[in-house]
Design a protein that fits this description.
Layout: H1 2-27, H2 30-36, E1 40-55, H3 59-63, H4 71-74, E2 80-94, E3 98-111, E4 116-130, E5 136-153, E6 159-161, E7 166-168, E8 172-192, E9 195-203, E10 205-207, E11 232-241
Antiparallel strand pairs: 1-2, 1-11, 2-3, 3-4, 4-5, 5-8, 6-7, 8-9, 8-10, 9-11
């Protein structure tokens, strides 16, 4: 819920960002424009769509649910898949080489065609470094924050028979919070002085304390299971604001 509210706020503030910079270009005196080329050089915000491929070494890590059934059934569950989602970011521009701000995203990985899915919401503070190559602006950065992974497991059959017993399955739902480091690289392509296309690739890395309460794999569970499955994501979106330095 908090991540959804954050994304809505980002969307609401984007028109203000664009309007403020348009006003700056038309009404600000030359002295103010020169001052903006110092430490604080502008701000921008935008929305991004993303798609990615997530994976885990074992199906039990994907769902992190106890009571999934016999090993014969669990080992045939999916341990990878494609995800998609959207999010937004707001950032300040410093000394024409640094973006500093905050961002939030939601991503869903559908599984098994039964309604099972892994949904991740995350956000945090971001910082990246960039340089200008004409209309191109390569950047490299890091987001530090946290989120929640929600796992819904819906069996493909109400009853599964194994060599030892017959088990009735019901839907299972779990939530696991996590902290993250999210390194990324990207490229902004200037479309106008106030709009740019952004393309970005990231790979979220979890961190946190060890826990044995997420699954029944007591000896094998480590901090990485807070955010499993994981994998690379490709982001494409539009940024609005002051996209070209003076």
């Amino acid at each position: 819920m908090r991540k959804t509210i954050f994304i809505i706020l980002v969307s609401a503030l984007l028109p203000l960002s664009l309007t403020a910079h348009a006003q700056e270009e038309t009404d600000a005196p030359k002295e103010v424009k020169k001052a903006s080329s110092g430490f604080f050089t502008g701000f921008s915000g935008g929305m991004m769509l993303h798609g990615g491929y997530l994976f885990a070494k074992d199906p039990r890590y994907v769902f992190s649910n106890t009571g999934l059934g016999s090993p014969d059934y669990v080992k045939n569950l999916p341990n990878d898949g494609f995800c998609m989602g959207l999010g937004g970011t707001l950032r300040a521009h410093l000394i024409n080489h640094i973006h500093l701000g905050a961002e939030g995203f939601v991503s869903t990985m559908p599984l098994m065609k039964t309604g099972s899915n892994v949904r991740t919401g995350w956000g945090g503070a971001m910082c990246d470094f960039y340089t200008d190559w004409g209309k191109m602006r390569p950047l490299i950065g890091l987001t530090v924050g946290g989120g929640v992974m929600k796992r819904l497991f819906v069996p493909d059959a109400p009853t599964v028979t194994s060599a030892d017993s017959e088990t009735n399955y019901n839907a299972s739902y779990t939530k696991t919070p996590f902290f993250l480091l999210d390194p990324y690289i990207g490229m902004e392509i200037g479309l106008t002085n106030h709009m740019a296309l952004i393309i970005r690739i990231d790979y979220m890395l979890p961190f946190g304390r060890t826990s044995s309460s997420l699954t029944d794999l007591k000896k094998d569970v480590s901090w990485g299971n807070f955010m499993t499955p994981s994998g690379p994501r490709l982001y494409v979106g539009l940024m609005f604001g002051k996209m070209k330095k003076d």
